[in-house]
Write a structure and sequence with these properties.
This protein has 260 residues and is α+β, with helices and mostly antiparallel strands. It has two domains: 194 residues, Gcn5-related N-acetyltransferase (GNAT) (Aminopeptidase); 60 residues, Dodecin subunit-like (2-Layer Sandwich), CATH 3.30.1660. It is 28% helix and 35% strand. The chain has eight helices and eleven strands. The strands form two sheets. The protein has an eight-stranded mixed sheet with strand order 1-2-3-4-5-6-8-7. β1 and β2 form a beta hairpin. The radius of gyration is 18 Å and the shape is globular. The C terminus is likely disordered.
Length: 260
């Protein structure tokens, strides 16, 4: 194995009595770790209330992505993989999430697919998604890659919240990962986007607050130029609200000037 150490420290593990602290390390994984990734994925899938919340990655696809430079940041506790973040560089293949938001040509070459993130339930609450995001962004800065794109299920509140807190916005809603075709039998997904070259704090007007279950309304807002830019806290029924707004013209002009 050729793991590369990224970070060490202590995190909390949930127990029946409360929690206890354990040492952890974040390492960049290699191909020898894929079987352990799949084992953790299967463990997580078995505990999901709804199978629509997560779309598993095929082992062959992971290995092929790694041959093409994909990076996977794994969180180990006592030698066991307990979480990971998987990003890939799809170029102009059909797997490129940029196609979902109408990116074309050379823009596709600059896309990073934030393919999946998994955290074992015993270690949730340690901001491991944010920790692995930090290491991913550190690796990407100064490279040719610019457009970071991810997919998140509307029923996966915590992943959505973490992505938005990391600077991503909702650009589209569609069905993906279908056996026949995305929009025919796929699973409903938010398509989240971030331009790594644009760190400007965005401001929005015409804000509309929408319940997460109002998918058709959200789609209509996006068609009319709205972007999902924030989420509220979960309520007692497990629902939450999303803030959609129109980017203010000054921000749009600044982004256009940056791209010129």
């Amino acid at each position: 194995m050729n793991r590369i150490m990224e970070e060490e420290g202590y995190i909390k593990r949930r127990t029946a009595e409360g929690h206890e602290f354990e040492p952890f390390s974040i390492m960049k994984l290699d191909m020898d770790d894929v079987d352990e990734m799949k084992a953790l994925e299967s463990e997580i899938m078995a505990g999901l209330a709804s199978p629509d919340a997560f779309s598993p990655d095929e082992k062959e696809d992971i290995l092929e992505d790694m041959k093409n430079g994909a990076m996977i940041f794994g969180v180990f506790v006592k030698g066991r993989l307990r979480a990971y973040r998987y990003i890939s560089f799809p170029k102009r293949t059909e797997a490129n999430y940029g196609r979902d938001i109408e990116l074309k040509g050379e823009e596709l070459d600059r896309v990073v697919n934030f393919t999946s993130t998994i955290v074992h339930p015993e270690y949730r609450g340690n901001r491991l998604q944010r920790k692995t995001m930090k290491h991913a962004l550190e690796q990407l800065r100064g490279t040719e890659y610019r457009y970071l794109i991810s997919t998140v299920s509307p029923i996966n509140y915590y992943s959505l919240k973490n992505m938005i807190r990391s600077g991503f916005v909702i650009k589209k809603i569609k069905r993906k990962y279908g056996k026949i075709a995305d929009e025919i039998d796929g699973k409903m997904r938010y398509i989240l986007f971030r331009d790594i070259n644009d760190d400007m704090v965005k401001r929005y007007s015409k804000t509309i607050v929408v319940n997460n279950t109002e998918i058709d309304l959200q789609k209509n807002l996006i068609k009319n130029g709205y972007i999902g830019y924030d989420v509220d806290e979960l309520d007692e029924f497990g629902d939450y609200k999303i803030l959609f707004g129109v980017p203010k013209p000054t921000d749009i002009k600044s982004m256009e000037a940056k791209d010129a």
